[in-house]
Amino acid sequence: MKKDKLHFNSKTIHGGQQPDKGYRAVMPPVYLTSTYAQSSPGDHQGYEYSRTHNPTRTALEASLASIENGKHGFCFGSGMAAIDAVVKLLSPGDEVISTNDLYGGSYRIFTKIFQDLGIVFHFVDMQDPANVAAKINVKTKLIWVETPTNPMMNVVDITAMSQLVEDRDIYLAVDNTFASPYLQQPLSLGADIVMHSATKYLGGHSDVILGALIVRDTTLAERLSFIQNASGAVCGPLDAFLVLRGIKTLHVRMQRHCENGEKIARFLADHPAIDRVYWPGFESHPNHEVAKRQMNGFGGMISFVQQNDSLEKATQTLEKLKLFTLAESLGGVESLVGHPASMTHASIPKAEREKSGVVDGLIRLSVGIEDNHDLIADLKQALK
Question: How far apart are CA 360 and CA 343, in angstroms?
Answer without folding.
Answer: 11
